[in-house]
Design a protein that fits this description.
The complex is a heterodimer of chains A (552) and B (111).
Chain A (H helix, E strand, L loop, with lengths): L1 H5 L1 H19 L6 H28 L2 E4 L10 E4 L1 H24 L6 H20 L3 H19 L5 H32 L4 H7 L5 H19 L8 H7 L2 H27 L2 H22 L5 H20 L4 H32 L14 H15 L5 H12 L4 H25 L11 H19 L1 H16 L19 H22 L7 H4 L3 H20 L1
Antiparallel strand pairs in A: 1-2
Chain B lengths: L1 H11 L4 H22 L24 H32 L4 H11 L2
The chains are: A mainly alpha (552), B mainly alpha (111).
C-alpha cells in the first residue's frame, strides 16, 4: 500500500489516459452509453481527488516525483508546486464542468464516443503540461493537447470548423517548431532540460543568448496564447468549435501558453529587452482586440476577441516581473479561466435555446433566471464589479502597475473599452424576440457551479493570494524583485485602485452609449481575415524584428 | 537549419493546402537534422556501458537529443497525417485545395 501512495502523483496524469484507452478498447463492445459516461467521469474526477489529497502537504514544500526512480537532472520528474497545482486544479474544474455540460449536447455531436476519447487525451495532455518538470515532456504533452484540440474543433462538422482547425494546425505547428528550436538552443547551451537545474544555469548565460532563445519561445507561446499579430487562428477556432470545446480552448489551452511563458521567465530568461517587447506586444494586443470586439454581433466572436485582449493584459503585466505583478497576473489567469468558461458555457446555452448567437436577435432577459444570473456573473466579472473574482484580479493588476504611469493609463483605457463592449452586448441583447426552450440540468448545473465559484474566489481573494499565489510568485521572481508590496493587508475594495477600476464602469457605459450611435469604421480588415501564408509571414517578420531589436 | 527555412519559405509561398502540410513536414525534418547534427560527437561511442566500468576516457554520445528526435518524428508524423486528413475533408466541403478560396468563401457567408 505504501508503494501506491508513494506513486500517487503520476496517477493524476495516468487516470485520464487510462480512461481514454479503456474507452477506445471498449468502443468495440457496444456498451450502453451510461457506462461510457461513468468511465469518462471517474477518470476525470480521480485527478481532482488526488490533488485535494496533495494540497495540505504542498503548502509546506513542493513535491517532486521521480519517474522510475531516476534522480532529477537525468530522469523525468513530475513537480507539484503551488503554481502547477493551482493550474491543475483549474484543469479539474474546467474538464469536469465541460464534461457534464457536453453530456447534453452529445446527441447533436456525430461520433460521440470518439469525442470522449479525444477529450480524455486532451485532459491528459493538460495535466502533463502543468505538472511535468522538464522542457521536453512539457513540449510533448503540449503537442498531445493541441493535436487532440485540432480534431475536437472539427466536431461541429461545418465548413468553418474544418477551415479553422486546418489554419490552427498549420500555425500551431509552426509555433511548435519555433518552440523546439528554443528548446534545442537551451539544451545545447546548458546540457540540461530540467527546470530546476536550468533556473540555476540560465542566468549565467550571456544576455544575447538569453534574448535569442527567449525570442523563439516567446513567438511560439504568443501563437498559442493568441497575442496579436499571431492571433489569426483564435477567433475562427473559438467560433466554430462546439461550445464545451470553446470553453476548454479559451479557459485552459490558451493559458498553457502563458503558463509556459511564466515558467521560462522564472528560469531567468527575463531581460530588459524582453520586458519591453512583452509590454509592447501585450498592450498592442489588448488595445486592438478590445477595439475589434466592438465590430461583431456574434457573441462567441466578441468573447474570443476579449480572450485575446485579456491575454494581452496578462502578458503585459507579467512582464514587469516583480512579486506583485506576477502574483496579480497569475491570479488573473486563474480567475479569467473560470469566468471565461462560465461565459462560453452560458453562450452555449443561449445558442441551445435561441438557435443563434447574434446579439441583435437573442433576448437575454427573457431567459431562465438561473442562466441570466450565471451569464451576468460572468460578464460582471470580466468587467470588474466587486464581489466577482474579475474585480479583485484586475485591481491587483492595476496596483502592480502603479509605478508606471503610462501603463496604468493604458490599462484603464483598455478597461473602459472592455466595459463599453459589454455594455453594447447587454444593450442589444435585451431587445430581441425569441421563444424559449426548457433547459436540461446538465447545462444549468455547470454554469451555476462556475458562477458560484467565481464569486467564492472573489470573496476569498486574500486567502488565495497570501497562501498560494504570492509565495509561488516569490519563488519565481527570485533575484528579480524590484518592488515588494506588503502582501498581508489587501483591502482592495477600498483602495485607490479599486475605486479607479469602479469609476471606469460608468465611463465605459457612457462610451458604449455614444458608440452605439456612431457609425463604426471598419478598422480590422487585415486583422480578422488572414491567410495562412500571411500569418506565417507575420511570424517571420516579427521574429526578425525581435532579433534585430534584441541583438542590437 | 536551412531545411527549416526551406519549409518556412514553402509555407509563405503556396496556397495549395497539401503543399502547406508538406512544407510543415519539411520543417520538421529540418529540425530533426538540426538536432541530430548538433548532437554529433566525432568518433563517439554508444552510450551503453557496463555498470562500474571506467567511462572517463570514452567519448560517449549524448542520447537525449536522439531519443527526443524519435519522439519528434512521431509527432511530426501525427501532425502530417492529421493535416492531410483535414485536407481530404476540406476538399470534400469546399471542392478546392486552394486555401485562399476557402478563406474567400467565408466572406460571402458571414457578415
Amino acid at each position: 500500500m505504501t508503494k501506491v501512495i508513494e506513486h500517487t502523483a503520476i496517477f493524476i496524469i495516468i487516470a485520464p489516459l487510462t480512461g481514454a484507452l479503456l474507452l477506445s478498447v471498449l468502443s468495440k463492445l457496444n456498451l450502453p452509453q451510461i457506462w461510457r459516461d461513468i468511465i469518462a467521469f471517474i477518470s476525470l474526477v480521480i485527478p481532482g481527488i488526488l490533488l485535494i489529497y496533495f494540497i495540505p502537504s504542498l503548502l509546506a514544500s513542493p513535491l517532486r516525483y521521480e519517474l522510475g526512480g531516476w534522480p532529477s537532472p537525468y530522469g523525468i520528474t513530475i513537480v507539484l508546486d503551488s503554481l502547477s497545482v493551482t493550474m491543475a486544479t483549474i484543469t479539474v474544474i474546467v474538464t469536469i464542468t465541460t464534461f457534464v455540460y457536453s453530456l447534453e449536447i452529445r446527441e447533436i455531436l456525430p461520433k460521440g464516443e470518439k469525442y470522449y476519447i479525444l477529450f480524455l487525451f486532451m485532459t491528459t495532455g493538460l495535466y502533463g503540461v502543468f505538472l511535468s518538470g522538464d522542457v521536453i515532456n512539457r513540449y510533448v504533452f503540449f503537442e498531445l493537447t493541441v493535436l487532440t484540440t485540432y480534431v475536437l474543433l472539427t466536431y461541429t462538422d461545418t465548413k468553418e470548423s474544418l477551415r479553422a482547425s486546418y489554419i490552427y494546425l498549420v500555425i500551431g505547428s509552426v509555433a511548435s517548431f519555433f518552440f523546439l528550436i528554443g528548446i534545442g538552443l537551451i539544451y545545447f547551451n546548458t546540457g540540461y532540460l530540467d527546470f530546476s537545474v536550468l533556473s540555476e544555469l540560465v542566468p549565467n548565460m550571456s544576455i544575447h543568448k538569453r534574448n535569442l532563445i527567449f525570442m523563439f519561445i516567446l513567438v511560439a507561446v504568443s501563437v498559442k496564447s493568441g497575442l496579436i499579430p499571431f492571433h489569426t487562428w483564435l477567433p475562427d477556432a473559438h467560433v466554430s468549435a462546439p461550445s464545451p470545446m470553446t470553453a476548454v480552448l479559451a479557459g485552459i489551452t490558451v493559458k498553457t501558453g502563458v503558463y509556459i511563458l511564466v515558467k521560462f521567465m522564472g528560469m531567468g530568461f527575463i531581460t530588459d529587452h524582453i520586458r519591453l517587447v512583452m509590454i509592447i506586444i501585450g498592450f498592442i494586443t489588448a488595445f486592438i482586440a478590445v477595439l475589434v470586439s466592438h465590430k461583431y454581433w456574434d457573441l462567441k466572436r466578441i468573447l474570443a476577441w476579449h480572450t485575446i485582449a485579456q491575454m494581452g493584459l496578462i502578458v503585459a503585466v507579467l512582464s514587469l516581473w516583480n512579486i506583485s505583478s506576477v502574483a496579480a497576473s497569475i491570479f488573473h489567469l486563474v480567475s479569467h479561466a473560470i469566468f471565461k468558461i462560465l461565459l462560453f458555457l452560458s453562450i452555449g446555452a443561449v445558442f441551445y435555446q435561441f438557435g443563434t448567437r447574434d446579439i441583435r436577435e437573442i433576448s437575454l432577459f427573457k431567459n431562465s433566471p438561473i442562466l441570466i444570473g450565471a451569464f451576468l456573473v460572468g460578464i460582471l466579472s470580466l468587467v470588474g464589479i466587486p464581489p466577482m473574482n474579475g474585480f479583485y484580479s484586475k485591481t491587483l493588476m492595476l496596483r502592480s502597475l502603479e509605478e508606471y504611469l503610462v501603463l496604468y493609463v493604458l490599462f484603464i483605457i483598455v478597461q473602459i473599452l472592455t466595459v463599453s463592449s459589454f455594455f453594447r452586448v447587454l444593450y442589444h441583447s435585451s431587445k430581441g424576440e425569441c421563444s424559449r426552450k426548457p433547459f436540461p440540468v446538465s447545462i444549468l448545473l455547470p454554469t451555476t457551479v462556475l458562477a458560484g465559484l467565481s464569486i467564492f474566489i472573489g470573496c476569498t481573494t486574500t486567502i488565495w493570494m497570501n497562501n498560494i499565489i504570492s509565495p509561488s510568485a516569490q519563488v519565481l521572481t527570485k533575484g528579480y524583485t524590484i518592488t515588494n508590496h506588503s502582501l498581508l493587508e489587501i483591502e482592495l475594495l477600498t483602495s485607490i485602485h479599486g475605486i479607479i477600476l469602479l469609476l471606469t464602469i460608468p465611463v465605459g457605459i457612457g462610451i458604449g452609449l455614444v458608440s452605439n450611435k456612431l457609425k463604426k469604421p471598419d478598422l480590422s480588415g487585415w486583422l480578422t481575415k488572414v491567410d495562412i501564408a500571411d500569418s506565417v509571414r507575420y511570424i517571420i517578420i516579427v521574429l526578425a524584428i525581435y532579433l534585430l531589436f534584441t541583438l542590437l | 537549419m536551412i531545411i527549416v527555412f526551406v519549409g518556412l519559405y514553402g509555407l509563405t509561398n503556396t496556397h495549395n493546402s497539401i503543399k502547406i502540410i508538406l512544407a510543415l513536414s519539411v520543417m520538421g525534418l529540418g529540425l530533426i537534422l538540426f538536432f541530430v547534427s548538433l548532437a554529433y560527437v566525432p568518433g563517439g561511442a554508444p552510450p551503453i556501458v557496463p555498470i562500474g566500468s571506467d567511462i572517463s576516457n570514452i567519448n560517449i554520445v549524448d542520447p537525449v537529443p536522439h531519443s527526443f528526435m524519435i519522439t519528434l518524428i512521431v509527432i511530426n508524423l501525427a501532425t502530417t497525417a492529421l493535416g492531410l486528413a483535414l485536407v481530404i475533408r476540406l476538399f470534400d466541403e469546399y471542392g478546392s485545395l486552394d486555401i485562399k478560396e476557402m478563406i474567400r468563401w467565408g466572406d460571402d457567408e458571414s457578415d
